[in-house]
Amino acid sequence: MKLNIPTSLQDITLNQFVEFQNSEQTNQDLVSIFCEIENTNVLQLKDFQEITEIVTNALNSNPNFYRRFIYKGVHYGFIPKLDNLSTAEYIDLEMYMAKPETFYKAMSILYRPVLKYKRNWFKRTDPFYDIAPYTGTNEIFKDAPSEYYLGACAFFFDLLNDCEKYMVDYSMSILKKSKQGRAYLMQNGDGMLASEL
């Protein structure tokens, strides 16, 4: 019997990932879904355990974020400017990222066909690009590698953590300046009369 054993998130489709998320997530489900075998009982125990370990390592690996990729012969790009996200895109994205069954729809919002590449004078290996306008979702990414979607989620998670860190750092610097200013006024402003205007 020949099995296709996924060794990375590139080998696991988004559809398989969602199916596993909706399953009981047992080792039998893991091997059955990702190796596309209906009856895992035909495998020897040693093989079953080895396959389980390989697939588990693939699922536990950190996904890479892809700004651009080629899928089914089409160049796709991540939304180049998140601050230009329309209200419709934001609402749909928030709704579709909430349920595993609609992850592929969220991905069709995040990644759209590249219409035009532009020269990046600062980093020649990473060109600027324009993507197709948002016209609704589609099902093209159901069989796309799950790493594209998971990498985009990791990007948002990292962005949120960075923003949170910067907010704390900024708040602490403001608090420190406020304390320094108060200390200066108490030391040098003591005995001053209030102005009478």
Description:
Helix content is 47%, strand content 11%. The protein is of the alpha+beta class and 197 residues long. It has two domains: 9-60; 64-183, no CATH class. The protein has a four-stranded antiparallel sheet. The longest helix is centred in the C-terminal third of the chain and has 43 residues, at 146-188. The model has no long low-confidence stretch (mean pLDDT 86).
Label this structure with key terms:
single chain; 197 residues; alpha+beta; four-stranded antiparallel β-sheet; 47% helix
Number of helices: 6
Structural class: alpha+beta
Low-confidence stretches: none
Q: Give the radius of gyration.
A: 25 Å
Please state the average pLDDT score: 86
Number of domains: 2
What is the percent of helical residues?
Answer: 40-55%
Q: Enumerate the strands of the largest sheet in spatial order, edge to edge or round the barrel.
A: 1-2-3-4
Overall morphology: extended
Main sheet: strands, sense, barrel: 4 strands, antiparallel
Number of strands: 4
Q: What is the distance, rounded to the nearest whole angstrom, between the alpha carbons of the first and last residues?
A: 94 Å
What's the helix-strand series?
Answer: HHHEEHHEEH
| Strand content range | 5-15%
